[in-house]
Amino acid sequence: MIYPLKKRRFLPVFALFAFVVLSVMLRFSSSILTLLDAVVSIGIQAVATSKIGGLLIPAYFFKNFWVVWIAIMIWAVFLRLLGFKVGFWWSLASASILIVITWGWSLLTFFYWDGGPIMVQNMPAVANVLWAFLFYQIQQILVVRLPLLAWVKQAIGALMVIAWLFMAAASIVEYDLSATTLVGSALFGYAFFRVLAMLYIRQGKRWQQFFGVDGKI
Length: 217
Known about the structure:
Layout: H1 10-27, H2 31-48, H3 57-62, H4 65-81, H5 85-110, E1 111-113, E2 117-119, H6 126-142, H7 150-175, H8 179-211
Antiparallel strand pairs: 1-2
């Protein structure tokens, strides 16, 4: 199901390391990140209130958690219709695990007690990291296999990147998320996908035999 991954083993490790560093810096209110986040936020707010701000209208809808969760379920059903029954469960289980890890990391990093429970923010942002994970799946499972010219595949990938950036911008406008949080979401989504994809490639056949599921791997 998953097209063989390029041998870039250092990239997931680097992405995860960068994510952890950004989380720690954000937790302790790094002055550099605070400045950068403020600049990005002011810029995006200005764009949102300008004439071209209407381009973000669809993104306000799609950035919702339930929308991306429904999109993931539709994608999983699509995999099942293609005959990838193990892939169907892998996609849903991976997304569920990702949600748990996201909330767990946020609690570990940004939760504290000061006369009552205080949750500073989520890092990574749940909906944004789920979209990143879904887009990575679509790219590596579907787009790379399409009988299209290389530039068309690159264009599709670029459109997914743009769509994610628009939803990130909408999250900054509506939820006041920091740019650091969204960068962290992309980094963590990438690292998570690489790890889970590698597990599927190596263990998919065993999972199929263990659960007694037929279909393609």
